[in-house]
Amino acid sequence: MSADQDSSTDLILELDLPEAIVSKAVVLAGEWAWPSPYAEEVVMRFQTAGKVVSGVELWQNQDGSPKWLATSNYSVDLSDEHEMLVSASARDALEFIARFRDLPGALFNF
């Protein structure tokens, strides 16, 4: 898989995802997105790496371009300790993914 080097790609590479997860990514408009079971694993990798998931977008692939369907609307309390922010954002991201898990063609972008 190849993608243009941008901040999204750099962040994904920092997560040190296994090839089994990377190979399931779909790159649309230079952004990475995954079907739900793999998206859940990516969220867990964010949490393990101590990174906050600032939001999730729900897409479908429309002729090689992302068709936006929804954006997560959770918010985190920035006054919380970093570890609490990481946990809360992962929990909320997983809940968003679960809500749309069964939508045909659902892809999740972070």
Describe the fold and architecture:
This protein has four helices and five strands, in the order ααββαββαβ. The protein has helices at 7-14, 19-22, 36-48, 82-100, and strands at residues 26-28, 31-34, 57-62, 65-71, 107-109. Strands 1-2-5-3-4 form a five-stranded antiparallel beta sheet. The protein is globular, with a radius of gyration of 13 Å. It starts with 6 loop residues before the first helix and ends with a strand.
Overall 3D shape: globular
* Strand order, largest beta sheet: 1-2-5-3-4
Structural class by SSE content: alpha+beta
Distance between the termini: 18 Å
- Number of DSSP helices? 4
Q: What low-confidence regions span 5 or more consecutive residues with pLDDT below 50?
A: 1-5
What Rg is obtained from the alpha carbons, in whole angstroms? 13 Å
Largest sheet: 5 strands, antiparallel
Classify the beta-strand content into a percent band: 15-25%
Instruction: State the order of secondary-structure elements, H for helix, E for strand.
Output: HHEEHEEHE
Count of strand segments: 5
Oligomeric form: single chain
Rounded average pLDDT = 89
Q: What portion of residues is helical?
A: 40-55%
